[in-house]
Design goal:
It is built from 9 helices and no strands. The chain is mostly helical. The N and C termini lie far apart (about 50 Å). The relative contact order is 0.19. Pfam families: BaxI_1. This is Bax inhibitor-1/YccA family protein.
């Protein structure tokens, strides 16, 4: 099975490149090949970096150490840095041992600020989003490891098409808004539906990420793929968390109305 990812920030060819250039495929021996445990360790490290950075930004809001406008600026700048680093990693995956930690820190700073402001509006929402995100992560991981859910080629194709269609639809909505066409994306049933679909697609992408890590390690991919796999998982987890946070905020806003 060819490893790949429908993660919107990644490229299927990067996993193929790692497979076909690996020492095992060439018939050589390399002690520095990727392992599943290594990818898990790198993922854990990037999560710690992201959560530590998020805690810093969060504390600036709740302690008042920084003005709200300054925190907002830091949140926005960090978000932009995260996007730039993610794009760089996508096109230069060999940089991932450096860019994956940088992405984790930048995205953590951005999510910490965003989460803190959301928590001020809807108390308790961040804990709910975190529990839902990590609960889904571990539930899907258990289902994958016990083979309750299998990632088949048909499943991959479905997720590829659904994810591509979703982001094309989102792009179309953004273009319509730029052209002055009203699109009810801020609230209402359409916004809630988009949030739920986004959450479901993120969950499906997590399953593909799990399979990518296993199959790419089995192929004897180079060691840097551990970092790239960690980056892939983190991108998907960030996607899931923000989608869940969006859904919860819409539900909370509806109750307030």
């Amino acid at each position: 099975m060819q490893a790949g990812s429908s993660n919107p920030m990644l490229n299927h060819g990067r996993f193929q490149e790692a497979e076909y250039s690996s020492p095992m495929r060439r018939g050589g021996v390399d002690s520095g090949k990727m392992t599943v445990s290594g990818a898990v360790d790198k993922t854990a490290l990037t999560l710690v970096l992201a959560m530590t950075a998020a805690a810093f930004t969060w504390s600036q809001v709740y302690t008042g150490a920084m003005a709200g406008a300054a925190v907002m600026t830091m949140t926005q700048v960090s978000g932009i840095v995260g996007i730039v680093v993610a794009l760089g990693t996508m096109f230069m995956p060999h940089w991932s041992p450096v860019t994956a930690p940088v992405y984790a820190i930048a995205k953590g700073l951005a999510l910490g600020g965003m989460s803190a402001f959301m928590e001020l509006m809807y108390p308790g929402i961040v804990v709910q989003a975190l529990v839902a995100t990590f609960g889904t992560l571990f539930a899907l991981l258990a289902a994958f490891k016990t083979k309750i859910i299998s990632v088949t080629e048909g499943f991959r194709s479905m997720v590829y098409m659904a994810t591509g269609g979703f982001f094309l639809g989102m792009l179309a909505m953004m273009l319509l808004r730029l052209c002055g066409v009203p699109v009810p994306m801020a609230s209402g049933p359409l916004a809630l539906g988009v949030g739920l679909v986004s959450t479901a697609l993120a969950a499906f992408n997590l399953l593909i990420d799990f399979d990518d890590i296993r199959s790419t390690a089995w192929q004897g991919a180079p060691k840097w793929m551990e970092w790239y796999s960690a980056f892939s998982l983190l991108v998907t987890l960030v996607w899931m968390y923000t989608s869940i946070l969006r859904v919860l905020s819409l539900l909370a806003g509806g109750r307030d109305d």
